[in-house]
Amino acid sequence: MARSTHTDRDFPQAGHDHAACIDEALAAAAEVCRLSGARLTELRRQVLLLIWDSHAPVGAYQLLDKLSRDGRTAAPPTIYRALDFLSGQGLIHRIESLNAYVGCRDPRRPHVGQFLICRECGTAAELEDAEIAGTVRARCADADFEMHHLTLEVLGRCPGCRRTGPGQADR
Amino acid sequence: MARSTHTDRDFPQAGHDHAACIDEALAAAAEVCRLSGARLTELRRQVLLLIWDSHAPVGAYQLLDKLSRDGRTAAPPTIYRALDFLSGQGLIHRIESLNAYVGCRDPRRPHVGQFLICRECGTAAELEDAEIAGTVRARCADADFEMHHLTLEVLGRCPGCRRTGPGQADR
DNA sequence: TCATGAATGCAACATTATAACATCGAAGAT
DNA sequence: ATCTTCGATGTTATAATGTTGCATTCATGA
C-alpha cells in the first residue's frame, strides 16, 4: 500500500543541515503569528529557538535552565506560558509520554502530531500520516465517539541508532 | 470498511453490570499471575480493585487516598510499586495524557493499549484495533524505525455524554 | 498623554514520581 | 520446627513537573 500523504521529510539524520530547520521554523512561526494576529514576543521567540536546539523533545525545566544560562531570569510560569502560547499557535507539540516539548515541522498546516521517538538519541520525527488518522477517525465513528484530540507516540529506535549497534542504553 | 479485529466490547455504558467487569478482572488477574509465577498479594489485589472502581483512569494519589480511607497506611512508593507490578503483568495501562491508570480488559492477551477517553465522564474504552496497529507498524517500517511501544490516546466525548447534551464542562 | 489589556516577573504552592534504607513475612532448605 | 533468604512492604525525604494569584511592565490605540 502507498504511504499516503505523510510528510516528505524522513527521520532527521545525524548530519543534516539543522540551521535550515531553525530558519524554516522561525520563518513559519513569524508567518503563523502574523496571520493569527498573535504576538511573537522576544521571550516566545527565544523559547522557540531553545526548543529547536535539536529534534529531541525538551522538558520545561531544561528550557528554564537554558533560559537562565542565556542570562534571562525565569521562573516556571514564564516557561509554561511561553509553551502554552507556542502550542496554541501550533508551533510546538507536547510529547505526553515524555512530559516534553518539540518543535512542529509544519505549523502552517494545523494537524494532530504523530511521533516516532528514539529512546537512544532522543530524536523525534513527526509523521502526520493520513491513513492512520483516517483509521482512528473511523474507529471513533464506529464507537459513536466524538474525537477531539489524538495522541500518537511510538517509542523505539531510529535508523541512525540501529546502524551504530544494538547494545545501547535507554534514555 | 470492516472493523477488523478490535474488541467486541463497546464503550462502557452508564448502566452496565460493572460487578461483572470487576469479577472478570480479578479472575483474569489471578490467572495471569498464576501463569507468570508472580504473586498477586493482598495489597496488589486491593489496588487493582480500587482501579476497577470504574472505567475512568485514576491518578496515583487518588488511589493513595482510597487506600487510606480503606484503613491501610500508604505512602507514594506503596502505590507506585503496586502500579509497576500491575502494569508489568499487563493488568493495567497507564494513560500518558492524564498521568492516570486504568484496568486492562484483556490482560490474558498481551497488547498495546489504544484508548478512547471521554473528557466529560472520564470513562476510557480500550480499542486494541489491528488495522491501526498494522498501519503504525507499516509506517515505522517505511521509516526504518524499530517500534518498541505505541501510545495511542484519543480524547473526546463518549456516546453517553453526547446524548445528554452538548454544553458540559471539561474535566 | 492616557487608558487599556496583554505580557511578564515573582512567590508560593500543588501534583506526580523516585531514591534510599529499614523491616516484615512467605517459601523452601536444613 | 527453625533458619535462611529474598521479595514485598513501610518510612522518610526529595526530585521533577505544573499551577495559582497577584504585582508590574509594556505595547497599542483612543
Written account of the structure:
The structure is a homodimer of 171-residue chains. By secondary structure, chain A is α+β, with helices and mostly antiparallel strands. Chain A has two domains: 19-107, Winged helix-like DNA-binding domain superfamily/Winged helix DNA-binding domain (Arc Repressor Mutant, subunit A, Orthogonal Bundle), CATH 1.10.10; 111-171, Dna Ligase, domain 1 (2-Layer Sandwich). Chain A has six helices and five strands. In chain A, helix 2 crosses helix 4 and helix 3 crosses helix 4. Chain A is globular and about 50 Å long. The two termini of chain A are 34 Å apart. Residues 1-7 of chain A have low confidence and may be disordered.
Largest interface: A-B, 39 and 39 residues
Spatial separation of the terminal alpha carbons of chain A? 34 Å
Quaternary structure of the protein: homodimer
- The CATH H-level superfamily of the largest domain in chain A is Winged helix-like DNA-binding domain superfamily/Winged helix DNA-binding domain
What's the arrangement of strands in the largest beta sheet of chain A?
A: 4-3-5
Q: Which tags fit this structure?
A:
homodimer; 171 residues; Arc Repressor Mutant, subunit A; Dna Ligase, domain 1; 2 domains; 41% helix; globular; DNA-binding
Helices, strands, pairings?
The structure is a homodimer of 171-residue chains.
Chain A: H1 18-36, H2 42-51, H3 60-69, H4 76-88, E1 92-95, E2 100-103, E3 114-118, E4 124-126, H5 130-142, E5 146-157, H6 159-163
Parallel strand pairs in A: 3-5
Antiparallel strand pairs in A: 1-2, 3-4
Helix pairs in contact in A: 2-4, 3-4
The first copy, chain A, binds a DNA duplex (30 and 30 nucleotides) through helix 4.
